[in-house]
Structure prediction request, 221 residues.
Amino acid sequence: MEKSITVPLSPRTCQRMARELHDTLAQGLVGLTMQLETIDSLLIEQGYEQALTIVRQAMTRSRATITSARAIITDLRTEPASTNDILTAIEAEAQHFAHSTGIACTCCLQAVLPGDYHKHFLRMASEGLTNIARHSQASQAWIRSSVENGGITFDIEDNGIGFDPEQVKTGHYGLLGLRERARLMNGHLLINSEPGQGTTVRLYLPYQTHPVKPMSFRHGE
Prediction:
């Protein structure tokens, strides 16, 4: 007879998982339910054209929610053991994102990512792409890493509608998770965006390393 093993989670881990589930799965499903209720009303009133528009919006939200769920599952996996593993994992994340959303995603990773932080880099890529799928209305995304000013930069960029960072609430979970990971890596998170100009989320990590041969892949074409 098999025995189940319960592994206790720290309060911080529980809080983080609760926050991510609230901002991704719970909010996504609430939004989908509201859209389906609106569609139901429109169909009763024969508002077919508007119902079709909302159906398409619901499909986009559904894909983004699936991407969020996958990102949470990724966070529970064993972190990559080598440089090749983390590069492959980020490329696979970009490919899955492109296939799920239809948004092309280019990876150009030109710096060796510190092994101690592999899991954080992968999770940041997942969270950044999830934000793009949910909010940006972009047609192209990029994930880049390079060596600048004695440290590593790790960028997640899109060509979407952009936003005013000053107007975003400090506790917005989509950005809060990224800021928390930057803090755990002793790095700095910078957000460059404005309406109509796309968005770049940059992690700057003060870490001396040597550049590796660039690898560029374009997924979703």
Remarks:
- The chain has a mean pLDDT of 77.
- The CA atoms of residues 15 and 42 lie 39 Å apart.
- The beta strands are 104-109, 140-148, 151-158, 188-193, 199-205, 216-219.
- The first strand starts at residue 104 and ends at 109.
